[in-house]
Write a structure and sequence with these properties.
Elements lengths: L22 E4 L1 H10 L4 E7 L7 H10 L3 E5 L1 H6 L10 E5 L7 H14 L7 E6 L4 H13 L4 E5 L8 H6 L9 E4 L2 H10 L2 E6 L5 E2 L11 E7 L7 H4 L4 E4 L11 H21 L7
Parallel strand pairs: 2-3, 5-6, 5-10, 6-7, 8-10, 8-11, 9-11
Antiparallel strand pairs: 1-4, 2-4
Helix pairs in contact: 1-2, 5-9
Length: 285
């Protein structure tokens, strides 16, 4: 009796995560920022009709200014559009996908912006290596945008699509932050280094304290690489780092959530850069 042929394994998906032609953003922060940023196609706005919307006037004004159709819906229907948590905050916005850039297009826009800018402040970019949880990606995007970063780089694989969950977790910050999607992170970092960016990798071991980073590094453009919790940054990606930095830990807990770690690093870089601008004559390493 012949043995049945072995079952073929499903191939691992390649390319960026699939994105639907339209989706629903819910939550007042995400909806408001999507309307303000004006980076997506927007089809229509649904509002709860009971008047209990703290920021409804602003949202309605933004929608009307853009000629967006506004409709009334009951709360249960809106909550049904909100995904697993089922909390729409009384508002839902039907949108197209958030645009994503190639690395070449992103670098071209940054070069043009640098030519037009009067400030000499170094630019900051966040790169995520294997951070797959949408809540973490959203939280990191919120910190990155608030700290003045100019972009977020994700990989085709081992990174989520920019879903409504990511936008909501970012409190709408992802609507403003340029997102770059790359196939090969090592090659992307090589391209960034060729464009005169320093690469900083967050690593617990064999690294210097973020507080000991030489001041001269902070005057240039920086890429901050954050890895997945548990796995960290892959060895090939780490090899591209000009500096490996760690956050000093004094308590009994050995590590921080990746979004929290990103916040500590980005705001330390911001603090140091601003202190350097206030005291340009101070001593430097």
């Amino acid at each position: 009796m012949k043995k049945p042929p072995p079952k073929s394994k499903s191939p691992r998906p390649h390319g960026p995560p699939a994105r639907p032609a339209s989706d629903w953003l819910t939550g007042q922060h995400a909806v408001r920022e999507a309307l303000r940023a004006h980076r997506r196609r927007i089809d229509r706005l649904l509002l709860r009709d009971d008047g209990r919307l703290g920021d409804a006037d602003t949202i309605v004004e933004l929608a009307r200014a853009r000629g967006i159709r506004i409709e009334v819906a009951d709360e249960s229907a809106l909550d049904g559009l909100a995904g697993p948590d089922g909390r729409s905050q009384g508002v839902a916005l039907q949108v197209g996908p958030l645009p994503e850039l190639t690395l070449d297009a992103f670098l071209a826009t940054q070069a043009a912006a640098a030519c037009a800018a009067e400030s000499t402040t170094g630019r900051r970019i966040v790169v995520l290596d294997g951070v797959e949880d949408p809540q973490n990606v959203g939280a990191i995007a919120r910190v990155a945008e608030s700290a003045g970063c100019v972009g977020l780089i994700l990989t085709d694989r081992r990174a989520p699509a920019i879903t409504p969950a990511v936008s909501r977790a970012s409190a709408g910050a992802i609507e403003w932050l340029p997102v770059v999607r790359v196939t090969n992170l090592v090659r992307a970092l090589e391209g960034l280094k060729a464009a005169r960016y320093w690469v900083l990798a967050a690593e617990l071991e064999r690294s210097e304290s973020i507080h000991a980073l030489p001041d001269r590094i902070l005057t240039g453009d920086l890429v901050v690489v954050l890895g997945a919790e548990g796995r960290g940054i892959r060895p090939g990606v780490l090899e591209q780092a000009d500096h490996r930095v760690r956050i000093p830990m004094r308590g009994r807990v050995a590590s921080l959530n990746v979004a929290t770690a990103g916040a500590v690093i980005l705001y330390e870089l911001l603090r140091r850069a601003e202190a350097g601008r206030k005291d340009p004559g101070g001593e430097h390493d």
